[in-house]
Amino acid sequence: MKYIDELKAKAKVLERDIMAIYIACRRPETPWHVKLLAAVIIGYALSPIDFIPDFIPVLGYIDDLVLLPLGIGLMVKLIPGEVLEECRKEAEEKYEGKRPDNWISGIVIIMIWAAVIWLLLLKIWA
User: Fold this and answer.
1) Which runs of consecutive H residues, i.e. helices, occur in 25-102?
2) DSSP 38-51
3) What does pLDDT average to in each consecutive run of 10 residues of the chain (126 residues)?
4) Rg of the chain (C-alpha set)
């Protein structure tokens, strides 16, 4: 039981950090290269296409369980410390128990993947 409680605590911290990264990327103090990396990580997290497909037993979720936390950890290290602390506080106050809605980002990610698939299909059949 202790191990499960530790995992739940780590998951809660990870969720807070995800929200803090979301807030930090909307601030002008965050460097542009950090924002670009955040877009790549978030795009991968929301993407229906993975490095290892999820239908493969056990291995399918390894990339989600390893790559995403590593990417989030990297983002936490790259965001300036004072900006990150402010964003963590704002995340705790503003998003406690709920997630931000951003339909535009979701639509953009879907359009990018649709374009990639379309280009691949053109390449295959051309």
Assistant:
1) 32-46, 62-78, 81-94
2) HHHHHHHHH-S--S
3) 82 82 88 88 73 72 79 89 90 71 70 82 82
4) 17
| Token pair listed for 109 | 């990610």
CA angle in degrees (0–180, nearest 5) for 66-28-23 = 45
Q: Tell me which amino acid residue 111 is.
A: M
**Entry pTM:** 0.62
CA dihedral angle for residue 106, residue 112, residue 118, residue 121, rounded to 10 degrees: -110
CA 120 – CA 102 distance, rounded (Å): 28
Structural tokens at position 97 = 């128990």
